[in-house]
Amino acid sequence: MKTDVIKLDAAKAGSIELSDAIFGLEPRADILHRMVRYQLAKRQAGTHKVKTRSETSYSTKKIYRQKGTGGARHGDRNAPIFRGGGIYKGPTPRSHAHNLTKKFRALGLKHALSAKVAAGELVILDNADLAEGKTKALASVIQDLGWKRALVIDGAEVNENFARAARNIEGLDVLPSAGANVYDILRRDTLVLTKAAVEALEARLS
Is pLDDT at 104 greater than 90 in this prediction? Predict the structure, then answer.
């Protein structure tokens, strides 16, 4: 499929041919959902932890004799039944990540890109180069282009001045092509790919 290419000043810069196998699929919500769950689960810290009865700070001495008190028999005060005692079967540090195959992850990225094309939310940029890393200048350009919540994906490396200028602009994310992922693509209203990013993604996914 052919689509227009623009410059940062919104002027046209020709057109580019996009691969139908990557940008022309019928987006499937189930694949995108599994990919988002995979990414969010993988980044969960999993550091929640409670103390078991072996880790609480009471004495391990038997609190009273076994027989003859008329009450239930108990060992030490660390038992879960007592206030301040250990927690039984509480959370421990663990990984929440689960596996998805490389083929499925690549398919998920294709569907995310295709979803943006289908929604009319894909913009192809000639390049994302700036002479100066000035936030004010880039913010003005972004406002003129009408990008409110945008993700800009560049080639193998992001232009240093562009990255510096974009750092303090709310709602604007910048990634190299290697960092392109389903969650970040879907959470922004506009996906902006440079020509270098298109070449890198097509090489990565073909």
Answer: yes
Q: Residue 23: give the domain boundaries.
A: 2-45+97-205
In a shared domain, residues 135 and 41? yes
Does residue 191 sit in helix, strand or coil?
Answer: strand
Of 109, 94, 117, 103, the C-alpha closest to 36 is 109
List beta partners, residue 191. 122, 151
- What CATH number does the domain containing 175 carry? 3.40.1370.10
Instruction: Please write the tens of the pLDDT for every residue from 35-47.
Output: 999 999 999 999 9
Supply φ then ψ for residue 183, to 5 degrees.
Answer: -60, -50
Considering the domain architecture, whether residues 29 and 101 belong to the same structural domain is answered as: yes
